[in-house]
Specification:
Layout (H helix, E strand, L loop, with lengths): L2 E10 L2 E10 L5 H10 E8 L2 E8 L5 H5 L1 H16 L7 H7 L6 E2 L2 H16 L9 H6 L14 H8 L7 E5 L2 E5 L12 H15 L5 E5 L2 E5 L8 E6 L7 E7 L2 E7 L4 E4 L2 E4 L2 E2 L4 E2 L4 E8 L2 H14 L1 H10 L4 E7 L2 E6 L1 H6 L5
Helix pairs in contact: 3-8, 5-9, 8-9, 9-10
Length: about 350
């Protein structure tokens, strides 16, 4: 049995997400490749500043039904990007961000739903996730603004913090619209938009009556049913010590998974390391020892949002948050020169060998 590991290093909207996607039965040998092609329909490409990969176990439907999937999925992902990318000046979120008006701003239904779900996670995590933290992210050089040549001053941080506060954003689902209570606020859905993209593709495949598939965008993934061998899909969390090593392999069936960490998305200045993960409370990059956190949930948008929030919380507070809510969570924590693992019982259960 030969495994192919697909390593995705993602910086969607400046967020590092790290997962290995392991596919059983996809081998380097021509004969095995042909066998795999007969059983799987592959779709891959670029979206949201990263790559995506989709595996669908074939059934008895004609080839033309598979051929229509790629353009349909690409169109879905283009639309998600058009709605939620802060790197596109004419996206819905960019247009909302430049609005100084504090009245209702009309948006698409999907945008309103993602904003609403994101605000719910902000509330549940008591602001560890804050979709208005963008001005601070940009100040520290992890957004569209250039990386600073000197560390931001306390005065600069305080000035940006005046624009922070998820409770200053409101959503109306019908008709869909959003508004801010303060001019100059800047929203960033990087913590949930990619997960939503995964869910959007999965829901499309559901609508086409596919029951065995694996959808991955930049390391965020969602799986249903079994792979082409009739086995549960497997996902591996990458090691912080070597990008080509697997730390843990998870059996993923009818669930979604997301990982947040600072393995690669950081910079060093004057001998100090600055993580891309910004704590909205302090206005500064986190300084705790949590190297990465992996979250499993029913949908990828929720897993994505919780992974970001727990990454901000750190290993102690984040683990307590996960344990209280019985979330399947896996942490890799720096302890001096080594890394140690922490996991909730719900995650431990997912490591057991499945048929």
């Amino acid at each position: 049995e030969i495994l192919i590991m697909i390593h995705q290093k993602c910086y969607l909207f400046n967020k590092a997400k790290l997962l290995f996607i392991l596919m059983l039965g996809v081998a380097l040998f021509v004969g095995c490749q042909e066998d795999s092609k007969a059983k799987l329909h592959f779709i891959s490409g670029r979206t949201m500043g990263t790559s995506f990969s989709i595996k669908i176990v074939k059934d008895n439907r004609p080839n033309e039904q598979y051929n229509k999937l790629e353009p349909e999925i690409n169109a879905l992902l283009v639309e998600v990007n058009r709605q939620m990318s802060t790197y596109l000046p004419e996206s819905e979120i960019s247009m909302f961000n430049i609005q100084n008006d504090t009245g209702w701003f009309d948006v698409s239904r999907d945008f309103a739903n993602v904003m609403n779900a994101s605000l719910e996670i902000c509330q549940q995590t008591e602001g560890a996730l804050d979709i208005t933290v963008g001005p601070l992210v940009n100040l520290w050089g992890f957004g569209p603004e250039n990386r600073p040549t000197i560390i931001p001053s306390d005065a600069e941080i305080a000035e940006r913090q005046n624009l922070i506060g998820y409770n200053k954003i409101s959503v109306r689902l019908d008709p869909p619209a959003v508004k801010k209570s303060q001019s100059g606020m800047y929203c960033d859905l990087s913590s949930t938009a990619k997960g939503f993209g995964v869910d959007k593709v999965a829901e499309y495949l559901e609508s086409e009556n596919f029951s065995n598939y694996f959808v991955e965008i930049g390391g965020e993934a969602r799986a249903k049913g079994n792979n082409e061998r009739g086995q549960i899909w497997r996902v591996g969390v990458t090691s912080p010590e070597r990008v080509d090593n697997i730390q843990k392999v998870v059996w993923l069936q009818n669930k979604a998974i997301a990982t947040s960490g600072d393995y690669f998305n950081y910079y060093e200045m004057d001998g100090k390391r600055y993580s891309h993960t910004i704590d909205p409370q302090t206005g500064k990059p986190v300084t705790h020892k949590l190297a990465s956190v992996t979250v499993v949930s029913d949908n990828c948008m929720t897993a994505d949002g919780f992974a970001t929030a727990i990454d901000v919380m750190g290993p102690e507070r984040g683990f307590q948050f996960a344990a209280e809510r019985k979330l399947p969570v896996f942490m890799i924590v720096r302890e001096g020169e080594i890394f140690v693992e922490k996991m909730t019982p719900e995650f431990s259960e997912m490591l057991k060998t499945k048929k």
